[in-house]
C-alpha cells in the first residue's frame, strides 16, 4: 500500500469519526487512533503535556513498531479519543512533530524513520504518523509487537518465531528432506496422479514430471533421482514411519472408545485417502434427500465442509511438533471435531478467519495440495465452509485456538431441505446473492430481529459498507425490509417470514424493545428525534412518545441534546450504542 493510499484510508476513517462513528469502530488493520500518554489526569480529564514529553514518545514508538511490522504498514492518528465519536473525540495532539519524529527514530531498533504530518480538523491539531511496512522486524522498548486485526499485540515464544520466519520468508515445507523420488510409494504416486488428472484434466507423463509440477523438488530436477522438499516427502514418502500423522476416530461421543479408526504415518496422500474413505463411508454416509423437484445425495455434514476441515488441518499444522498428530473425531454420525497441532499463524485471529488473506504455515505444502485440487487456490475455503453449513441449516463452524492447537468443530445433522431449496432459488434469481454473507444474514434473522448492518459486519467479518450492500441486495430481492426508510435495521419480509415461521427461534419482543429498534433505525438517517417525530414513527400519542423516549434515555440508548426537560427536548443516539463492535473497515 502506497503512502498516498494509506493517507486516504486514514482520512476516510477520520471523517467517519468526525461524523459520529466511535473511533475504536473506525480502526482497521491500517488505521489506529491514539491519545498521547500523560494527557489524561487521574479522573479522566484532559490535561496539557509538554511538547517534548518523553513518556508520550516512548509509547508512540511502540505503536509505530507494531504497524511497521505489518505487511501493509499503516497510519497512527494522534489526538483522538477512541472511546467516542463526533467532534468531542478530537481532543488534539500536543507533541512537537519534528521532535517526535526524531525520538521515534531513536527509540526503535533498528532505527526507523516515519513521516509526521500536522493536520487541523474542526479547529483541532492532530498528527498523522505514516508508517510504511519495514523491511525487517522493528522493536521498541525491547518488545516485538505486531498488528492483529485492529489491535497491537506483543509476540513471544512460538508466535514470535513464526512471525520472524514469515517475515524472513522461511518455509519449513520447502526445505530439503533428505528423501528422494525413489522413496515415494507407488500408492502415494498413484493417488497424486489421480488427483492431478481430476483437477487438471490430463496427468503428467512421468513421476518426475508430476513432482516437478507439484513444486516439491530440490534443484532443477535434472537428476534421475532428485531430492524432495519436506512437503514432497510428507505427501509421497514414508517420512518418519514411527510418527502417526493423522488419526481418525469414529465414536458415539468424545471420550468413548472408537467404533472404527484410521491412523497412520506419512505419506499423507495415502493416509488421507484412507481417512476420507472412512469419513464418507460409515462415519457420515450419504442419504437421498429430496430438494425441490430433484433428489440429491447428502451427508449430515456437507462434503465441502467435511473435506475443508481435514485438508486445512493437514495444510496448516506445525510439522515441527514431532510428537503430535492431527486428530479427527467423527461423533455419532452427526458432528466432526478436528484438532491440528500448532495455533493460528502469527497475525491471524479467530474473528478474522473468513476475510483474512490465506497465510499458510507451510506455503510449499499448501501450493502442492492446491495443484492436486485438494485445497482452494483463491484462499476462500473457510468462507465456503461457513456458507455450506449455514445453507444446510446447521450452526456456523467453530474455529478456535486452544492449548497450542487449532480446533475445528462442525455440528451437523439432518439437512434442512426447505432452506437448501430457498438458497438455491435465491442464487438462481441473483448470482450475487450466492455467498456467505447472504447465508449469514438470513440465518441470523432466524435467531434475532432486527438485523443491523453493524451486526452483520461483525459476524461476517467484513466492513459495515460491505454488510450494508448485502442487506440492500436482499431488500431489493424482496427477502428483507427495513424498519425505517434509510435506516440500517432490517427484518425478514413477510413472505420469507411466513415461509420459515417454524424456524424462528425468538419469542415475541416487548413493545419497548420494538420501539427502541425503530428509534435507533430512525436515528441512522436523522441526527435527532423529538416527541412529535417519535409519536409519528411509533404510532402513539405524544405523551406516550415522551414516556418512551424518557425510558430509552434511562436505558442509555439515547441522550438529550439540549433542553433536558419539557416537550421540546430532542434526543440523539448515545455513541456507545451505535455499534455492536463490528470490524468496521474503511472503504
UniProtKB/TrEMBL annotation:
Record Pfam families: HATPase_c_4 (PF13749), SLFN_AlbA_2 (PF04326)
InterPro entries (UniProt xref): RecG_C_sf, Schlafen_AlbA_2_dom, Schlafen_AlbA_2_dom_sf, WH-like_DNA-bd_sf
Name all Schlafen AlbA-2 domain ranges. Answer: 27-155
The name this protein carries in UniProt is: Unannotated protein
Which source organism does the UniProt entry give? freshwater metagenome
The record lists the lineage as:
unclassified sequences, metagenomes, ecological metagenomes
Amino acid at each position: 500500500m502506497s503512502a498516498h493510499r494509506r493517507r486516504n484510508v486514514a482520512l476516510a476513517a477520520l471523517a467517519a469519526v468526525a461524523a459520529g462513528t466511535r473511533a475504536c469502530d473506525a480502526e482497521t488493520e491500517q488505521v489506529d487512533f491514539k491519545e498521547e500518554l500523560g494527557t489524561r489526569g487521574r479522573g479522566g480529564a484532559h490535561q496539557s503535556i509538554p511538547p517534548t514529553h518523553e513518556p508520550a514518545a516512548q509509547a508512540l514508538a511502540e505503536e509505530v513498531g507494531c504497524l511497521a511490522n505489518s505487511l501493509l504498514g499503516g497510519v497512527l492518528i494522534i489526538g483522538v479519543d477512541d472511546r467516542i465519536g463526533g467532534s468531542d473525540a478530537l481532543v488534539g495532539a500536543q507533541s512537537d512533530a519534528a521532535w517526535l519524529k526524531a525520538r521515534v527514530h531513536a527509540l526503535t531498533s533498528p532505527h526507523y524513520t516515519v513521516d509526521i504530518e500536522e493536520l487541523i480538523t474542526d479547529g483541532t491539531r492532530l498528527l498523522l504518523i505514516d508508517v510504511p511496512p519495514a523491511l525487517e522486524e522493528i522493536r521498541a522498548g525491547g518488545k516485538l509487537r505486531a498488528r492483529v486485526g485492529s489491535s497491537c499485540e506483543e509476540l513471544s515464544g512460538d508466535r514470535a518465531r513464526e512471525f520472524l520466519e514469515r517475515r524472513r520468508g522461511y518455509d519449513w515445507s520447502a526445505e530439503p528432506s533428505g528423501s528422494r523420488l525413489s522413496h515415494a510409494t507407488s500408492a502415494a504416486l498413484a493417488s497424486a496422479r489421480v488427483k492431478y488428472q481430476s483437477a487438471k484434466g490430463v496427468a503428467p507423463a512421468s513421476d518426475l514430471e508430476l513432482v516437478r509440477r507439484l513444486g516439491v523438488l530440490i534443484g532443477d530436477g535434472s537428476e534421475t533421482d532428485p531430492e524432495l522438499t519436506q512437503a514432497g516427502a510428507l505427501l509421497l514418502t514414508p517420512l518418519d514411519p514411527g510418527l502417526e500423522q493423522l488419526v481418525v476416530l469414529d465414536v458415539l461421543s468424545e471420550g468413548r472408545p472408537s467404533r472404527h479408526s484410521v491412523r497412520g504415518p506419512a505419506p499423507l496422500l495415502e493416509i488421507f485417502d484412507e481417512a476420507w474413505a472412512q469419513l464418507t463411508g460409515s462415519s457420515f454416509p450419504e442419504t437421498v434427500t429430496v430438494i425441490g423437484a430433484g433428489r440429491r445425495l447428502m451427508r449430515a455434514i456437507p462434503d465441502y465442509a467435511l473435506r475443508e476441515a481435514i485438508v486445512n488441518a493437514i495444510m496448516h499444522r506445525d510439522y515441527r511438533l514431532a510428537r503430535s498428530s492431527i486428530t479427527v473425531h467423527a461423533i455419532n454420525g452427526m458432528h466432526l471435531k478436528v484438532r491440528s497441532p500448532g495455533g493460528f499463524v502469527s497475525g491471524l485471529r479467530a474473528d478474522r478467519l473468513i476475510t483474512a488473506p490465506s497465510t499458510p504455515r507451510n506455503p510449499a505444502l499448501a501450493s502442492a495440495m492446491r495443484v492436486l485440487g485438494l485445497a482452494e487456490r483463491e484462499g476462500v475455503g473457510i468462507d465456503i465452509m461457513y456458507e455450506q453449513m449455514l445453507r444446510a441449516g446447521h450452526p456456523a463452524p467453530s474455529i478456535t485456538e486452544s492449548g497450542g492447537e487449532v480446533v475445528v468443530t462442525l455440528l451437523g445433522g439432518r439437512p434442512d431441505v426447505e432452506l437448501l431449496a430457498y438458497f438455491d432459488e435465491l442464487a438462481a434469481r441473483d448470482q450475487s446473492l450466492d455467498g456467505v454473507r447472504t447465508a449469514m444474514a438470513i440465518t441470523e434473522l432466524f435467531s434475532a430481529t432486527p438485523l443491523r448492518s453493524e451486526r452483520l459486519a461483525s459476524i461476517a467479518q467484513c466492513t459495515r459498507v460491505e454488510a450494508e450492500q448485502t442487506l440492500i441486495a436482499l431488500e431489493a430481492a424482496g427477502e428483507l425490509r427495513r424498519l425505517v426508510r434509510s435506516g440500517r435495521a432490517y427484518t425478514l419480509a413477510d413472505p420469507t417470514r411466513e415461509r420459515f415461521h417454524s424456524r424462528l427461534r425468538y419469542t415475541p419482543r416487548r413493545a419497548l424493545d420494538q420501539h427502541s429498534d425503530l428509534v435507533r433505525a430512525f436515528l441512522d438517517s436523522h441526527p435527532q428525534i423529538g416527541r412529535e417525530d417519535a409519536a409519528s414513527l411509533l404510532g402513539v400519542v405524544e405523551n406516550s412518545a415522551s414516556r418512551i423516549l424518557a425510558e430509552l434515555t434511562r436505558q442509555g440508548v439515547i441522550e438529550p441534546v439540549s433542553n433536558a426537560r419539557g416537550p421540546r427536548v430532542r434526543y440523539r443516539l448515545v455513541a456507545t450504542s451505535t455499534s455492536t463492535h463490528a470490524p468496521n473497515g474503511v472503504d
